[in-house]
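ok here's the first one, seq then struct tokens
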Amino acid sequence: MRIFALVISILLMPSLSFADWWNADWAYKKKISLDKVALQQTGSSPDAKAVALVRLHTGNFSYFLDVAEGAADLRFVAGDHVTELAYSIEKFDAINEMALIWVKLPENIAIAEEPVIWMYYGNPQAMASQMMLTRDGISLLYHFSGSDVADATTNANHPALSTASPSSAGVIAGAAQFDGTQSIAITESASLMMSADTGWAISMWLRMDQPLVDAVVVQRGNGSLLLAIKEQKFQLTLMDSAEQVHSIDSGSELVVGNWHHIVLTQSGPTMALYVDGQSAASMTTDVTRFSGDLLVGLDAEGSKGFVGLLDELTMTGFAPDENAIKFAYAMQGLGTPLLLYGEDMSEEDSDSSGEPSYIQATLENVSTDGWMVIGALTIMMLVSWMVMVGKGIVIAKIHKENANFIEEFEKLGVSEMEKLNREDNEDDEDAMESPLMLSLTGGHEKFQGSSIYRVYHAGVEAINHRLPKAVGADVVMSAQSVEAIRASMDASLVRELQRLNSQMVLLTIAISGGPFLGLLGTVLGVMITFAAIAVQGEVDVNAIAPGVAAALATTVAGLMVAIPALFGYNYLGSRIKEISADMYVFVDEFVAKVAERYS
């Protein structure tokens, strides 16, 4: 549908300007901005090597099916709509509608008036981008997003042994699960050299699943460098050139079940430990190089195993500064995401200078389940409107013809009826009817739409069954006969009321069922939104708001069904009550005249 709309708009707008469009072959783009307020709160800013983690899910992106197969048409462009940015896809699941993409930020984005990048998609013919992300200075990177642990860099520092179990509960997609006996062993290589002259860093996300007294996280060589958890605290232990052991700890205890970001760096003689973006401890050492195999989750003796999850294990050949560490923690973490996701736009949207349509933006985020509910509500609304219009026309006609009949009937008096006789009407097809009936002969067909007339006719037929057939016979009715006539008229009245109230139940269904059906759609939409956010780990209002707003659209649809149906039901009900009252009054008046005439 969006592609069809785009084609029509291009045909109708041949002079469309693509000044703010990177490439006309791409149908759509999405605005992604850095949150300046959140950046100020973290006290950090993106440097020249900064990488953004773009998290897409149903809460901020509704067009996974518009992306080409394998996400080959994804492109990321700087705010100038010209400079293409390198990126790498860690996960793109169009079926479950979630994606994790690492994007190299423009070098000057920190000083830009509007720190923004654009994500382009919607080109089925596109080939995979050649602008794939290669992070300078990174010697090892394990995302743990697949079943096999593998190095995501070109250094191919794959583990020599990995017994850790894959887990889907990572802070960023998957993670490695350790049970105290599992480990990852990485063989020494030239790219994994840790030299104080160039600087180095080891970083990871870590979560303890139980209190740990003494557990190894990372060990280099034969224990010359050891990062462990002791008594719920991170502890760094190293051996200097004189084989003296030195230790420092993080100071504050770790929380079981919480994710923590750990970075260990060395620049010159200074080693520093950062926990959750903050400097936790530091020491000075004369060790200028660490070598040997790298062991994760166990020590060299196979003891002191770590129990918990580990994600995004990274080694770099440089030492990032505190600002870069704070930015990485804020960008990757679950606390205060730094990216704001704007609306998705096509070329005509980009060229338009009007204000954005919030209703359109909300509807664009409605999930498939929501559209199914809205479709059911639309059918319910059409049915209720058909009932209200049809019933309104019928009731108006009945009310008018009832008024005409009552006007004619009230002109009859007892004296006029006594003067009538059946002999004067021998040629009339109603000659066998009572004088009350004959009083309105010559125009019965004009009352056929009157419900009171039909009740009246039932009464007349009941009278005819009780009149003597002989001419000149004295006509007298007992009280029981009069009551029998009333019963016949009451039966006809009930049938008329049933006819008047027919299909009104459809309005009550719309009134009571519409809001509940809309609420069902809202609950489903909110569940999907929060489930996606739980998987993606993005918990700011900008991730939640679009999905919740779209979910609430079904409740609005339910109210749009129920409110008109409620007004129509009350109005039609009051008109039916008026007609019912007229029929009851007429029955009483008619029976009274019968009793007066034939008593």
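and now the second one, same deal
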Amino acid sequence: MANAHGLHARPATQLVNLTKKFQGEIHVQVDDGAFVSAKSLTKLLSLGCQRGQHLTFIAEPDSDAVEGLSQIIAAVQQGLGEEIQPIDTQQNTANTQPEILTFESNTDTDAKTQGIAASTGLAYGPAYVIKPRQYDYPRLASNIKDESLKLDIALHTVKNNIYQLIAKTDVDDIKQIFTAHLEMLDDPELIHNVQKGLKQGLSAAAAWHDYIESAAQAQEALQDRLLAERAADLRDIGERILAHLCGVEEQIAPDSPYILIMQDVGPSDVARLNKERVAGILTAVGGASAHSAIVARALGIPAIVGAGQHVLDIQNNETVLINGDSGEFIIQPDATLIEQAIHERERQHTLRLEAEKHCMAPAITLDHHQIEIAANIGNIHATEQAVNDGAEAIGLLRTELVFMAHQNAPSEEIQQADYRTVLDTLAGRPLVVRTLDVGGDKPLPYLPLPSEENPFLGLRGIRLTLRKPELLQQQLIALLKAADDRPLRIMFPMIGRVEEWRAAKAILDEVRQQYPCKNLQVGIMIEVPSAALLAPILAQEVDFFSIGTNDLTQYTLAIDRGHPLLSAEADGLHPSILLLIDQTVRAAHQYGKWVGICGELAADPKAVPILMGLGVDELSMSSTSIPLVKAQIRQLNFTDCQTLAHQALQCDSATSVRALGA
């Protein structure tokens, strides 16, 4: 499975729709697990299939489904309606603004609390609190026929309502989510299990609630966080049917703008919202990747999720101020703080509009120091948008995409065509390519590897391709042939030892003898502390360094950047990281080599002046961040940046670094 988030609701719906075209039965398993019906959405979701796991399909013999297997496999390989993304999709969604407002309470009555930032923006207004509804229904019923009819009417009514919601919206994310909801309601497995409850003497409401809740709990138990969060979708459709069965009316929302507060806002709740009246959303539970958060972002509604059960104790009409960028919210803020938030929101909007007007201009400081601004991409078709956003180069092409999109290792011709697409779109701008960076925690479906106790310290990056040299050699040939002497920069990932660099370079040198490339530079990623410490030696041999601050921070501080409790402490502005960057830059410049930053830190407004002051030559980031970073640099003085960087190197914590110049 090559989809970035595995077989979640939307691709699973596509799979169900495809398999239902065939009369014969089709079953599917994940790795060596049990087979389930590929025509049942709830069964597919219960598999918990994640990226990199194998799907095996079997079809009923002597049926049209056998011939249809090739179509099904091809659809899975192509992403089932989703654009396939590389595993390492560290999109820089933070820092789309040069500053994030941090609330500072002005009075003792201000109650400042924290949730998970889910949808960007500032909002305030009176609270409108919807607490979990209580449903009163008999547990048992004597007439199965009557209960079955009640269920049929409820299903028909709710499905009609969903069709109307789909017809009214222009937002693709909402349409896709509700299409998945319709598929759940048509799932024969779901209906079969509810009917079993009716036959056991349960009422329609009891049979329905029992099965939906058990299915939701099974979904929550999955190891994959994103798939587990889809339990909210099951409960969402469950509540809609249950409300109809129990005759529970929906609450009527206020006519004036408000902050919606709920236990968990289901996708159907969000989609029914009037964007002009819902200023913001605050929930007790949920995650930033839940469907409700996706829809909130699509509608442009600021949202904070997972803030805790106490938010349900907020009184209706109490004023709430939320910051969807930081996850902070304040109950009963004073007028000064509200005025500050309004001013900040207007300022940020104006800054972005102005920055976008000048995104093509270079990033030059007030005292005439220029730095190259590049884009990180994981999709070859994202190149055009990066150029339009003002990218002066592609500072990181994650080539995993080319490999993850195929059942088998892509041929040299397929790779070459993809790389040529990027180079053609860049029209002479440099392209920095990271060679295949998989293995360990990022497996290829067609490259079986033994499971590892600690994949982050295992067989990944250059460690893998040096043991599979045919993969690396083929990729290098495709890159050199696609270049046509255009500016190509190749870098090897996860270099931790000089021997690894030299072994990889030897393979490239051998390829270059047959496929010369005039405009080529060869470098390495600085992701491992040992590489930064060896920079004085490596700088004599490489053409450039590109510092991946995400992994460098993870390995230096020994904190998994995805850890639910510790990830916030993995701050790339920790002095230990800055000292490693400083050593790398000094070593590179001593031998006339350049250094880029391609981690999330590159677009952090607090980090930009410090990185510039350390002498970094290039900053590469998500293309949406480019206009604002360029605008920020044009307001800086390089001499001041150098002073700031020197001060940062003397600090004892990331907190003290971020406090500099505050």
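notes on #2: The chain has 26 helices and 20 strands. Confidence is low (pLDDT under 50) at residues 87-102, 105-109.
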